[in-house]
Write a structure and sequence with these properties.
Length: 282
Amino acid sequence: MAYQTLDLRPLAGAMGAEVNGVDLTANLSNQTFDEIHQAFLDHKAIFFHDQDLSPRQQIAFGRRFGPLCIYPFVEGLPEAPETFEIVKAEDDVRNFGGAWHSDMSFTEKPPLGTMLYALEMPDAGGDTLFANTAAAYAALSDGMKQLLDGLIGVYSAALARGGGRAANFKSHTSMAARNMDKVEMGAEHPIVRTHPETGEKALFLGKGHTVRFKDMSVAESLPLIDYLADHCVRPEFTCRFNWRVGSLALWDNRCTLHFAVDDYPGQRRRVRRLTIEGDRPF
Ligand code: SIN
């Protein structure tokens, strides 16, 4: 589409665009919001710099896309429980989100999108990588597409292959974990989902959360899950976002994966996250 009010700069060939010239604290006109929404669909992840957003202002912007949903495993901010902070402090030994994933794919209705706002950043590093899983699906052979047609994935929050969610949180000492007795929560979704707004087909899986295919054993499933997960994140399907304090990212969880790079030992990084309710994948 031809954008009338937005100045967009694509970040990479596959996906991602920076949006310039918008103040997200302003009362956005319907035209500007519609263009932001279209840019979100066109580029799958959009990025704004130099924003000064309180939790309530971030929530107000998030709600323009739909109702918000709550992340079950971290305490929300007392003044804005729809949001929580992802913190890696100087002495934390690992970060949050440091594996390719789509947020909350283990829920019945995974969020349509995630919005992250940068509060503190290391001097260098702490970037987030994104992968376009619709482009990854399109690049598969017809034979593989036929094989995947109708295949259902079983998704779990337990992070069994990643050392276990509760153990992971012990090293996020700066984050207040909750519901650690519910880490076995899970859901079943098609491995190839259809985007409800664009109609595009996209792979929907990751090594952390997709534990097996329905009606198959873990051992039978993992080789293909791993092949597809590695295929999704081939460099030509990705972009990389370099944060500044005041940057805001919004990505489409229905057709992307993301990965928070943990390359800033001894430094602090803090971002504020919210998620926007999605549909049951089909
Ligand atoms: C996340 O997976 O939500 C965290 C991404 C990041 O901190 O860059």
